[in-house]
């Protein structure tokens, strides 16, 4: 079945090669234009669309690479899948100077496996705390200072607002759990390069602090009606409800452009006054006084190990991730740069508030990547199964139960 869908990396007449670049759906038009710009007299770069979800993207790419598909020249990869693909020898190594001092640390960390660079950071993603300024003011919450999850949940409850997170049983829920644990000074798992012998750390004081936040929100009047199946899209609707003061919401960088695009007079649109009421702040602290560790996401560009054109593919990977590409993705699609210098470009300064750009940049630079493991997919699914439903999360039992299960899955004593 995998073989039936393979594409040729070379022209059918043996002429100019075509490099296939498998892209995720975010910013399709911009990515198509970047592919055209990065085509040369020696080769063409064309885009092939991957499924919408990161899990389905991983599955399709893994099937192709396991079949040693030579037509998978370039691929857009979620950061958590770089270690798995590199460990399986599915990615070609890239030059060490693919990352440098201009690459934000959160993005740089995600493309290195066993001291080698296996992907080029393209755009970086992070979460911030979005909120209605009027809601925070009514609750008496000073947003010029760092705020904790406890403060946000209490403020929303007292002022009649809600708190939006991603708590469905999917990858974004693990993103939430990971940042809560990292914000308390812990980690889900350590010594990940040991593979199945890595040390599971989730049964810790940091794990219990994270579980306490989820439990508090689940029991709070600020929880949203669809809390247990919430995702990035469902939480958007609560910022400007038909009645009520709005929400505090942790979500990705696309939010600003999303609400800006809703300004108008029609049904489902918002007023300029409403948009001006939108505020943003650093991701909430898990523990008061300890710096938060915002989520890190985005897209890296990997070169398939079985490409017929490795030199051209490496060259193209660096072109589609250059400063111009990062600037275009930010301005056109709200997908933020992985290089610090691009935040200073005039195009970004003209399209985003200066303090929001600084917040994005600093959050990416100091954020918490998810565990870098060749077995990340198993780790993630195991945590999802043990921490969902969020209504059942208990600081006294959930971290320990999930630790036992993740360990058993890694050791082959339990199945997902």
UniProtKB/TrEMBL annotation:
UniProt family annotation: Belongs to the bacterial solute-binding protein 1 family.
Name the record gives this protein: ABC transporter substrate-binding protein
The entry's keywords: Signal, Transport
Organism of this sequence: Nocardioides lentus
Coiled coil: none
Transport is among the record's keywords: yes
The keyword Cell inner membrane appears for this protein: no
Phylogenetic classification of the source organism: Bacteria, Bacillati, Actinomycetota, Actinomycetes, Propionibacteriales
PANTHER family (alphabetical): ABC TRANSPORTER PERIPLASMIC-BINDING PROTEIN YCJN-RELATED, ARABINOSE-BINDING PROTEIN-RELATED
